[in-house]
Write a structure and sequence with these properties.
Layout (H helix, E strand, L loop, with lengths): L4 E8 H12 L24 H18 L2 H14 L25 H16 L3 H13 L2 E2 L4 E5 L5 E4 L3 H11 L7 H17 L16 H7 L10 H9 L4 H24 L9 H8 L4 H9 L9 H12 L4 H15 L14 H6 L11 E8 L1
Antiparallel strand pairs: 1-5, 2-3, 3-4
Helix pairs in contact: 1-2, 2-3, 2-4, 3-4, 4-5, 4-6, 6-7, 6-10, 10-12, 10-13, 13-14
Length: about 375
C-alpha cells in the first residue's frame, strides 16, 4: 500500500509546465538528448530527435517565463544535440526513426526539429541554429501548383510527396514559425493554405480523411512535367477503397483532433488567410460536436492520433471558438486525470509510449495561463 494520499490543488497551467520541466531535467542525457520514443501505437523505435525537439520547446518556453538559467542550460544542450552530426548524420534531413519505410519519417518527422531549432536560435541568441532549421526546411521541395511538400530522406533522396494529410498540415504548422524571418517560408505556407480547401478531403459529417486528395485534373495536368506527381494518383484510388471502411474511419477519428490542433497553430501565425472562411474547413470543425469526436477527447479512444487529446482540444477551443477559461481548463483537466502521473510529475500515465506522451506536453505552451486542478502526493 502506498504511504501517501492523493489530493488536488489549484495551480496555473504555466506552473504545471514549470513542474514538468523540473522533472524532465533529470531525463536529459550527457549528449543533450532525451530518451527515445517508439512512435506511439506503431511501435517503431525512434532516435532521440523527436522527444528532444518537444522537450526543447518546453524548456525554451519555461525559461522565457521564469528566466531560470537552469532551463536555458538544458535547452542549450538539447539544441546542440539537434544541430549535431548524430541528429543529421549525412547533412540533409534529421535522422528520426530506426524502423519503418524511411528514416526521416516523412515530412512529419522533420516538422518539430525544424521548429524547435528555429525557436532555439531566436531565444538563445544562436543564429546558427535558426540557419540549420531554415536549411532543412528549404531542402523539402514545395509544389506551388498543388500546394504540397515532398519528403527528403536522411541521405538526400527525394521520396516524392508525403501522401498523409496530417503530415502536410503538421509540417506547415510547425514551420510557420519560420515565416516571421524567412520570405521563402512565408510564401510556401501561404501557398499551402491557398490550396488546402482543395487538398483536404472530408466525409459528409465533417470527419477529415487520412490522405491528401488534390483535384485529379490538377495531378494529371502536371504529370508530364514531373513524374513524381503520378505518386498522388494512388491517393485517388485509395480514397474510393477506404470510403466505407470502418477500420479507416476509426483511424481518422483518432487523427481529427491532431489535424484541427495543427490548424489552430497555423491560424495563430496566419490569422488573416481566407482559408479559415472556407466551407470545407468550417465543416471539419463542426465534427467536434459529434459523439465520435467527444469519445476521443474524453476517453482517448481510438489510440491513433493525439495521445494527449485533451490538451490538443483545449488548443482548438482557445484558437477557433469563443471558449471560456473554464471550458479550456476542463479540457486540460480531462487530460490531467487520464495522463498525469503524480509519481513522476510527468504525463507518463495510461499510455503505450510514455516517453513520447510526456514530451508532448509542450503543446500546452499554446494555451493561456488558466487555473487547473492537479493531483499531488501528501505524505
Amino acid at each position: 500500500m502506498p504511504d501517501y494520499q492523493l489530493k488536488t490543488q489549484t495551480i496555473s497551467l504555466y506552473d504545471l509546465l514549470r513542474r514538468c520541466a523540473d522533472e524532465a531535467i533529470d531525463l536529459q542525457r550527457e549528449d543533450g538528448s532525451f530518451p527515445s520514443a517508439q512512435n506511439g501505437v506503431y511501435g517503431q523505435l525512434e532516435t532521440p530527435v523527436g522527444t528532444t525537439s518537444h522537450w526543447l520547446d518546453l524548456f525554451l518556453f519555461v525559461y522565457k517565463q521564469t528566466h531560470d538559467r537552469r532551463f536555458r542550460q538544458v535547452a542549450d544542450r538539447a539544441a546542440t544535440y539537434l544541430a549535431s552530426d548524430e541528429a543529421r548524420p549525412q547533412g540533409y534531413t534529421f535522422y528520426f526513426r530506426k524502423a519503418g519505410a524511411n528514416r526521416c519519417n516523412g515530412i512529419v518527422g522533420q516538422a518539430k526539429p525544424i521548429e524547435s531549432l528555429y525557436l532555439a536560435g531566436q531565444r538563445l541568441d544562436r543564429p546558427m541554429l535558426a540557419n540549420i532549421a531554415t536549411e532543412v526546411f528549404t531542402l523539402h521541395p514545395f509544389d506551388d501548383r498543388l500546394g504540397l511538400w515532398e519528403a527528403i530522406e536522411v541521405d538526400g533522396t527525394n521520396l516524392s510527396f508525403d501522401r498523409t494529410l496530417n503530415h502536410q498540415i503538421i509540417f506547415a504548422a510547425s514551420t510557420s514559425e519560420l515565416a516571421s524571418l524567412s520570405k521563402v517560408a512565408e510564401n510556401r505556407i501561404n501557398g499551402f493554405l491557398d490550396h488546402l480547401a482543395e487538398t483536404i478531403d472530408i466525409h459528409d459529417d465533417g470527419l477529415v480523411c487520412h490522405y491528401i486528395r488534390p483535384p485529379l485534373k490538377n495531378i494529371i495536368r502536371t504529370i508530364p512535367q514531373l513524374s513524381s506527381h503520378a505518386h498522388l494518383v494512388r491517393n485517388e484510388i485509395a480514397s474510393h477503397y477506404y470510403e466505407r471502411s470502418e477500420k479507416r474511419r476509426t483511424k481518422e477519428i483518432g487523427y481529427h483532433v491532431t489535424v484541427l490542433s495543427a490548424l489552430a497553430k497555423l491560424k495563430e501565425n496566419f490569422p488573416k488567410h481566407s482559408v479559415w472562411d472556407q466551407r470545407k474547413i468550417q465543416k471539419a470543425f463542426s465534427f467536434i460536436e459529434t459523439e465520435d469526436y467527444q469519445r476521443k477527447v474524453q476517453a482517448n479512444t481510438p489510440k491513433y492520433g493525439s495521445v494527449l487529446p485533451g490538451i490538443h482540444h483545449a488548443c482548438i477551443l482557445s484558437t477557433f471558438f469563443d471558449s471560456t477559461e473554464t471550458e479550456i481548463s476542463n479540457s486540460i483537466e480531462v487530460e490531467i486525470s487520464r495522463s498525469y502521473d503524480p509519481e513522476t510529475g510527468l504525463f507518463t500515465g495510461e499510455g503505450t509510449d510514455p516517453m513520447f506522451q510526456s514530451s508532448l506536453i509542450n503543446f500546452a505552451t499554446m494555451l493561456p495561463d488558466v487555473d487547473i486542478e492537479v493531483p499531488f502526493r501528501e505524505l
